[in-house]
Amino acid sequence: MSPIDFKSLILVLLAMGTGLTPVSGHAQSRVVDMVAAVRLSGPIDFCGEAVPLENPSVRERFEKEMLISLWDRDQAILWLKRSTRFLPVIEALLAEAGVPDDLKYVAIAESALRPHAGSPKGAIGFWQFLADTGRKYDLVINARIDERRNLRASTQAAIRYFQKLYADFGSWSLAAAAFNMGEEGLKAQILAQDQKDFYRLYLPLETQRYLFRILSAKLILSHPGRYGFEMNTEDFYAPLETDAIDLVCWDETSLTVVAQAAGTDFKWIKDLNPQIRGHHLAAGRYRLLLPAGAADGFQARFEERFAAWQALQKERIYVVQEGDNLSRIAERFQVPLPALLIWNRLDMRHPIHPGDRLIIHPAEEKAP
Fold first, then answer.
1. 83-93: string of b/e by CB count within 10 Å (b at 16+)?
2. What is the pLDDT of residues 186-225, one digit of tens each?
3. Which domains does the chain have, with CATH numbers?
Protein backbone atom coordinates (compact mmCIF):
# COMPACT_ATOMS: atom_id res chain seq x y z
CA MET A 1 0.00 0.00 0.00
CA SER A 2 1.33 3.42 -0.95
CA PRO A 3 1.82 6.11 1.75
CA ILE A 4 -1.14 8.05 0.31
CA ASP A 5 -3.42 5.02 0.46
CA PHE A 6 -2.30 4.28 4.03
CA LYS A 7 -3.06 7.84 5.08
CA SER A 8 -6.53 7.63 3.53
CA LEU A 9 -7.18 4.36 5.34
CA ILE A 10 -6.20 5.89 8.69
CA LEU A 11 -8.61 8.79 8.11
CA VAL A 12 -11.47 6.44 7.28
CA LEU A 13 -10.76 4.32 10.36
CA LEU A 14 -10.72 7.47 12.48
CA ALA A 15 -14.07 8.47 11.06
CA MET A 16 -15.58 5.04 11.75
CA GLY A 17 -14.39 5.01 15.33
CA THR A 18 -14.84 8.60 16.44
CA GLY A 19 -17.66 10.20 14.49
CA LEU A 20 -15.14 12.15 12.41
CA THR A 21 -15.14 12.27 8.64
CA PRO A 22 -12.13 12.74 6.35
CA VAL A 23 -11.97 16.06 4.54
CA SER A 24 -9.72 16.96 1.65
CA GLY A 25 -8.70 20.57 2.11
CA HIS A 26 -7.10 22.64 -0.64
CA ALA A 27 -3.63 22.36 0.91
CA GLN A 28 -3.91 19.48 3.35
CA SER A 29 -6.05 16.58 4.55
CA ARG A 30 -7.70 16.78 7.92
CA VAL A 31 -10.75 15.49 9.74
CA VAL A 32 -13.95 17.25 10.77
CA ASP A 33 -15.93 16.37 13.85
CA MET A 34 -19.30 15.30 12.44
CA VAL A 35 -20.96 15.47 15.86
CA ALA A 36 -19.90 19.08 16.29
CA ALA A 37 -20.92 19.87 12.71
CA VAL A 38 -24.59 19.34 13.47
CA ARG A 39 -24.43 21.03 16.86
CA LEU A 40 -25.97 24.40 15.94
CA SER A 41 -25.06 27.55 17.86
CA GLY A 42 -28.18 29.47 16.88
CA PRO A 43 -31.60 29.27 15.21
CA ILE A 44 -32.13 28.41 11.57
CA ASP A 45 -34.94 29.37 9.24
CA PHE A 46 -36.32 28.76 5.77
CA CYS A 47 -37.51 31.89 3.98
CA GLY A 48 -37.74 33.64 7.34
CA GLU A 49 -39.83 30.88 8.92
CA ALA A 50 -38.15 29.46 12.03
CA VAL A 51 -37.30 25.77 12.13
CA PRO A 52 -38.46 24.41 15.54
CA LEU A 53 -35.29 22.55 16.48
CA GLU A 54 -36.48 22.44 20.09
CA ASN A 55 -38.80 19.68 18.86
CA PRO A 56 -36.72 16.46 19.22
CA SER A 57 -38.26 14.89 16.12
CA VAL A 58 -37.50 17.96 14.01
CA ARG A 59 -33.90 18.11 15.29
CA GLU A 60 -33.39 14.43 14.49
CA ARG A 61 -34.74 14.85 10.95
CA PHE A 62 -32.53 17.90 10.40
CA GLU A 63 -29.41 16.19 11.76
CA LYS A 64 -29.98 13.13 9.59
CA GLU A 65 -30.11 15.14 6.35
CA MET A 66 -27.22 17.34 7.42
CA LEU A 67 -25.03 14.30 8.16
CA ILE A 68 -25.96 12.69 4.84
CA SER A 69 -25.05 15.87 2.97
CA LEU A 70 -21.78 16.28 4.87
CA TRP A 71 -20.77 12.66 4.32
CA ASP A 72 -21.40 12.97 0.57
CA ARG A 73 -18.58 15.46 0.34
CA ASP A 74 -18.02 15.06 -3.39
CA GLN A 75 -21.57 16.21 -4.03
CA ALA A 76 -21.30 19.12 -1.58
CA ILE A 77 -18.08 20.28 -3.24
CA LEU A 78 -19.87 20.30 -6.59
CA TRP A 79 -22.72 22.31 -5.04
CA LEU A 80 -20.16 24.89 -4.00
CA LYS A 81 -18.27 24.90 -7.28
CA ARG A 82 -21.41 25.27 -9.41
CA SER A 83 -22.95 27.89 -7.12
CA THR A 84 -20.89 30.74 -8.57
CA ARG A 85 -21.91 29.81 -12.10
CA PHE A 86 -25.67 29.44 -11.65
CA LEU A 87 -26.86 31.00 -8.39
CA PRO A 88 -26.25 34.66 -9.39
CA VAL A 89 -28.83 34.26 -12.19
CA ILE A 90 -31.32 32.60 -9.83
CA GLU A 91 -30.71 35.18 -7.08
CA ALA A 92 -31.32 38.08 -9.46
CA LEU A 93 -34.62 36.60 -10.69
CA LEU A 94 -35.80 35.86 -7.13
CA ALA A 95 -35.00 39.42 -6.05
CA GLU A 96 -36.74 40.88 -9.09
CA ALA A 97 -39.87 38.86 -8.28
CA GLY A 98 -39.75 39.81 -4.58
CA VAL A 99 -39.68 36.23 -3.31
CA PRO A 100 -37.29 34.87 -0.62
CA ASP A 101 -33.68 34.27 -1.59
CA ASP A 102 -33.74 30.91 0.24
CA LEU A 103 -35.72 29.43 -2.66
CA LYS A 104 -32.44 29.14 -4.56
CA TYR A 105 -31.50 26.20 -2.34
CA VAL A 106 -34.50 24.29 -3.70
CA ALA A 107 -32.73 24.09 -7.07
CA ILE A 108 -29.67 22.63 -5.34
CA ALA A 109 -31.72 20.01 -3.54
CA GLU A 110 -33.65 19.21 -6.72
CA SER A 111 -30.90 18.95 -9.32
CA ALA A 112 -27.53 19.84 -7.75
CA LEU A 113 -27.64 22.65 -10.37
CA ARG A 114 -27.45 20.24 -13.32
CA PRO A 115 -29.55 21.22 -16.37
CA HIS A 116 -29.89 17.62 -17.60
CA ALA A 117 -30.80 16.08 -14.24
CA GLY A 118 -33.74 13.70 -14.55
CA SER A 119 -35.86 11.47 -12.34
CA PRO A 120 -37.56 8.11 -12.91
CA LYS A 121 -40.91 9.95 -12.80
CA GLY A 122 -39.92 12.18 -15.73
CA ALA A 123 -38.95 15.34 -13.86
CA ILE A 124 -36.26 17.25 -15.75
CA GLY A 125 -33.93 20.20 -15.34
CA PHE A 126 -32.74 22.63 -12.69
CA TRP A 127 -36.07 22.65 -10.82
CA GLN A 128 -37.20 19.12 -11.75
CA PHE A 129 -40.47 20.04 -13.37
CA LEU A 130 -42.76 17.33 -14.66
CA ALA A 131 -43.83 18.09 -18.23
CA ASP A 132 -47.46 18.93 -17.41
CA THR A 133 -46.48 21.28 -14.58
CA GLY A 134 -43.81 22.94 -16.69
CA ARG A 135 -46.26 23.63 -19.51
CA LYS A 136 -48.76 24.99 -16.99
CA TYR A 137 -46.16 27.62 -16.07
CA ASP A 138 -45.38 28.56 -19.68
CA LEU A 139 -42.33 26.37 -20.37
CA VAL A 140 -41.94 25.12 -23.94
CA ILE A 141 -41.60 21.34 -23.80
CA ASN A 142 -41.74 19.35 -27.03
CA ALA A 143 -39.62 17.07 -29.20
CA ARG A 144 -37.29 19.96 -30.16
CA ILE A 145 -37.14 22.25 -27.11
CA ASP A 146 -37.28 21.54 -23.38
CA GLU A 147 -37.09 24.76 -21.38
CA ARG A 148 -36.97 22.85 -18.11
CA ARG A 149 -33.23 22.71 -18.89
CA ASN A 150 -32.96 26.45 -19.44
CA LEU A 151 -31.83 28.20 -16.25
CA ARG A 152 -33.61 31.52 -16.76
CA ALA A 153 -36.88 30.15 -18.18
CA SER A 154 -37.20 27.33 -15.63
CA THR A 155 -36.39 29.66 -12.72
CA GLN A 156 -39.06 32.12 -13.84
CA ALA A 157 -41.54 29.22 -14.01
CA ALA A 158 -40.49 28.01 -10.55
CA ILE A 159 -41.01 31.51 -9.14
CA ARG A 160 -44.54 31.68 -10.54
CA TYR A 161 -45.28 28.21 -9.15
CA PHE A 162 -43.93 29.10 -5.70
CA GLN A 163 -45.93 32.32 -5.67
CA LYS A 164 -49.07 30.31 -6.39
CA LEU A 165 -48.21 27.71 -3.73
CA TYR A 166 -47.51 30.38 -1.12
CA ALA A 167 -50.83 32.04 -1.91
CA ASP A 168 -52.55 28.67 -1.47
CA PHE A 169 -50.86 27.55 1.75
CA GLY A 170 -49.67 30.75 3.45
CA SER A 171 -46.28 29.24 4.31
CA TRP A 172 -43.04 28.85 2.39
CA SER A 173 -42.35 25.57 4.18
CA LEU A 174 -45.67 24.18 3.00
CA ALA A 175 -45.06 25.66 -0.45
CA ALA A 176 -41.78 23.69 -0.63
CA ALA A 177 -43.60 20.53 0.47
CA ALA A 178 -46.23 21.07 -2.24
CA PHE A 179 -43.49 21.70 -4.80
CA ASN A 180 -42.14 18.25 -3.93
CA MET A 181 -45.34 16.20 -3.61
CA GLY A 182 -47.95 18.24 -5.50
CA GLU A 183 -50.45 20.70 -4.10
CA GLU A 184 -53.48 18.40 -4.28
CA GLY A 185 -51.73 15.69 -2.27
CA LEU A 186 -50.66 18.21 0.37
CA LYS A 187 -54.12 19.74 0.60
CA ALA A 188 -55.54 16.27 1.16
CA GLN A 189 -53.13 15.57 4.01
CA ILE A 190 -53.83 18.93 5.65
CA LEU A 191 -57.55 18.20 5.59
CA ALA A 192 -57.19 14.59 6.74
CA GLN A 193 -54.87 15.48 9.64
CA ASP A 194 -56.43 18.86 10.50
CA GLN A 195 -52.92 20.30 10.65
CA LYS A 196 -51.23 23.14 8.72
CA ASP A 197 -47.79 23.09 10.34
CA PHE A 198 -45.29 21.39 8.01
CA TYR A 199 -43.23 20.08 10.91
CA ARG A 200 -46.27 18.39 12.50
CA LEU A 201 -47.69 16.83 9.32
CA TYR A 202 -47.17 13.18 8.47
CA LEU A 203 -46.26 13.29 4.78
CA PRO A 204 -44.62 10.89 2.32
CA LEU A 205 -41.13 10.09 3.61
CA GLU A 206 -39.46 11.83 0.66
CA THR A 207 -41.37 15.03 1.43
CA GLN A 208 -40.64 14.77 5.16
CA ARG A 209 -36.92 14.77 4.26
CA TYR A 210 -37.19 17.37 1.53
CA LEU A 211 -37.11 20.63 3.47
CA PHE A 212 -34.22 19.39 5.62
CA ARG A 213 -32.21 18.56 2.51
CA ILE A 214 -32.80 22.14 1.36
CA LEU A 215 -31.70 23.45 4.79
CA SER A 216 -28.51 21.38 4.70
CA ALA A 217 -27.64 22.93 1.32
CA LYS A 218 -28.32 26.39 2.78
CA LEU A 219 -26.00 25.86 5.75
CA ILE A 220 -23.17 24.30 3.74
CA LEU A 221 -23.23 27.00 1.06
CA SER A 222 -23.57 29.78 3.63
CA HIS A 223 -20.70 28.56 5.82
CA PRO A 224 -18.46 26.16 3.83
CA GLY A 225 -15.43 26.68 6.07
CA ARG A 226 -17.43 25.71 9.16
CA TYR A 227 -18.02 22.30 7.59
CA GLY A 228 -14.48 21.70 6.40
CA PHE A 229 -14.71 22.89 2.80
CA GLU A 230 -11.53 24.94 2.31
CA MET A 231 -12.41 26.69 -0.96
CA ASN A 232 -10.20 29.25 -2.68
CA THR A 233 -11.52 31.66 -5.29
CA GLU A 234 -10.04 29.65 -8.15
CA ASP A 235 -11.82 26.50 -6.92
CA PHE A 236 -15.21 27.84 -7.96
CA TYR A 237 -16.52 27.56 -11.52
CA ALA A 238 -16.55 30.90 -13.29
CA PRO A 239 -19.86 32.37 -14.47
CA LEU A 240 -20.54 31.77 -18.14
CA GLU A 241 -19.65 34.76 -20.30
CA THR A 242 -22.23 34.93 -23.05
CA ASP A 243 -24.05 37.09 -25.57
CA ALA A 244 -27.80 36.67 -26.00
CA ILE A 245 -29.23 36.85 -29.52
CA ASP A 246 -32.63 36.48 -31.16
CA LEU A 247 -32.40 34.11 -34.11
CA VAL A 248 -35.13 33.58 -36.69
CA CYS A 249 -34.90 30.31 -38.61
CA TRP A 250 -37.03 30.37 -41.75
CA ASP A 251 -36.35 26.69 -42.31
CA GLU A 252 -34.95 23.78 -40.34
CA THR A 253 -31.32 24.53 -39.51
CA SER A 254 -28.37 22.46 -38.33
CA LEU A 255 -26.95 23.60 -34.99
CA THR A 256 -23.53 23.14 -36.55
CA VAL A 257 -24.37 26.09 -38.81
CA VAL A 258 -25.14 28.18 -35.72
CA ALA A 259 -21.89 27.06 -34.10
CA GLN A 260 -19.84 27.91 -37.19
CA ALA A 261 -21.44 31.35 -37.43
CA ALA A 262 -20.61 31.90 -33.74
CA GLY A 263 -17.00 30.81 -34.25
CA THR A 264 -17.34 27.91 -31.84
CA ASP A 265 -18.30 24.23 -31.88
CA PHE A 266 -21.53 22.27 -31.69
CA LYS A 267 -20.89 21.14 -28.11
CA TRP A 268 -20.50 24.65 -26.74
CA ILE A 269 -23.74 25.79 -28.38
CA LYS A 270 -25.50 22.79 -26.82
CA ASP A 271 -23.91 23.46 -23.42
CA LEU A 272 -24.94 27.11 -23.46
CA ASN A 273 -28.46 26.23 -24.64
CA PRO A 274 -29.33 22.93 -22.94
CA GLN A 275 -33.01 23.42 -23.79
CA ILE A 276 -32.28 22.48 -27.42
CA ARG A 277 -32.91 18.82 -28.13
CA GLY A 278 -31.21 17.06 -31.02
CA HIS A 279 -28.99 18.46 -33.76
CA HIS A 280 -31.36 20.88 -35.51
CA LEU A 281 -33.54 23.92 -34.90
CA ALA A 282 -37.01 23.81 -36.41
CA ALA A 283 -38.30 26.88 -38.22
CA GLY A 284 -39.14 29.56 -35.65
CA ARG A 285 -37.76 32.29 -33.40
CA TYR A 286 -35.21 31.48 -30.69
CA ARG A 287 -33.44 33.28 -27.90
CA LEU A 288 -29.96 31.74 -27.82
CA LEU A 289 -26.78 32.22 -25.84
CA LEU A 290 -23.48 32.49 -27.72
CA PRO A 291 -19.92 32.77 -26.40
CA ALA A 292 -19.12 36.33 -25.33
CA GLY A 293 -18.21 38.48 -28.34
CA ALA A 294 -19.86 36.18 -30.89
CA ALA A 295 -22.98 38.32 -31.33
CA ASP A 296 -21.07 41.00 -33.25
CA GLY A 297 -21.64 40.23 -36.94
CA PHE A 298 -23.35 36.92 -36.14
CA GLN A 299 -26.43 37.47 -38.32
CA ALA A 300 -24.40 38.05 -41.51
CA ARG A 301 -22.19 35.04 -40.82
CA PHE A 302 -25.23 32.90 -40.05
CA GLU A 303 -27.01 33.81 -43.27
CA GLU A 304 -23.88 33.03 -45.29
CA ARG A 305 -23.34 29.68 -43.55
CA PHE A 306 -27.00 28.75 -43.78
CA ALA A 307 -27.16 29.46 -47.53
CA ALA A 308 -24.09 27.28 -48.12
CA TRP A 309 -25.46 24.50 -45.93
CA GLN A 310 -28.87 24.58 -47.62
CA ALA A 311 -27.28 24.42 -51.08
CA LEU A 312 -25.18 21.44 -49.99
CA GLN A 313 -28.27 19.66 -48.67
CA LYS A 314 -29.95 19.90 -52.08
CA GLU A 315 -26.92 18.32 -53.74
CA ARG A 316 -26.98 15.32 -51.43
CA ILE A 317 -30.50 13.99 -51.99
CA TYR A 318 -31.08 10.27 -52.40
CA VAL A 319 -34.50 8.95 -53.39
CA VAL A 320 -35.42 5.76 -51.56
CA GLN A 321 -35.92 2.78 -53.89
CA GLU A 322 -38.02 -0.36 -53.59
CA GLY A 323 -36.32 -2.82 -51.22
CA ASP A 324 -34.21 -0.15 -49.50
CA ASN A 325 -33.83 0.07 -45.75
CA LEU A 326 -31.71 2.40 -43.66
CA SER A 327 -29.02 -0.15 -42.87
CA ARG A 328 -28.53 -1.03 -46.54
CA ILE A 329 -28.44 2.62 -47.57
CA ALA A 330 -25.85 3.43 -44.89
CA GLU A 331 -23.72 0.48 -45.98
CA ARG A 332 -24.00 1.41 -49.67
CA PHE A 333 -22.79 4.96 -49.05
CA GLN A 334 -20.29 3.87 -46.38
CA VAL A 335 -21.66 6.19 -43.72
CA PRO A 336 -22.56 5.35 -40.10
CA LEU A 337 -26.23 4.52 -39.64
CA PRO A 338 -26.51 6.95 -36.66
CA ALA A 339 -25.24 9.77 -38.95
CA LEU A 340 -27.94 8.94 -41.50
CA LEU A 341 -30.54 9.18 -38.73
CA ILE A 342 -29.18 12.55 -37.54
CA TRP A 343 -29.00 14.14 -41.01
CA ASN A 344 -32.61 13.20 -41.71
CA ARG A 345 -34.16 13.46 -38.23
CA LEU A 346 -35.19 9.80 -38.51
CA ASP A 347 -36.17 7.20 -35.96
CA MET A 348 -35.45 3.49 -36.48
CA ARG A 349 -38.98 2.76 -35.26
CA HIS A 350 -40.48 4.54 -38.27
CA PRO A 351 -39.92 2.84 -41.65
CA ILE A 352 -38.88 4.62 -44.83
CA HIS A 353 -40.83 4.21 -48.06
CA PRO A 354 -39.98 4.27 -51.78
CA GLY A 355 -39.94 7.84 -52.98
CA ASP A 356 -38.78 9.31 -49.65
CA ARG A 357 -35.92 11.76 -50.05
CA LEU A 358 -32.89 11.35 -47.80
CA ILE A 359 -29.88 13.60 -47.27
CA ILE A 360 -26.66 11.58 -47.48
CA HIS A 361 -23.18 13.03 -47.26
CA PRO A 362 -20.46 10.83 -48.78
CA ALA A 363 -18.06 9.26 -46.32
CA GLU A 364 -15.15 11.47 -47.40
CA GLU A 365 -17.20 14.66 -46.96
CA LYS A 366 -17.41 16.38 -43.59
CA ALA A 367 -20.98 17.65 -43.26
CA PRO A 368 -22.84 19.71 -40.66
1. beebbebbeeb
2. 999 999 999 999 999 999 999 999 999 999 999 999 999 8
3. 1-37 (no CATH), 40-235 (1.10.530.10), 242-312 (no CATH), 317-359 (3.10.350.10)
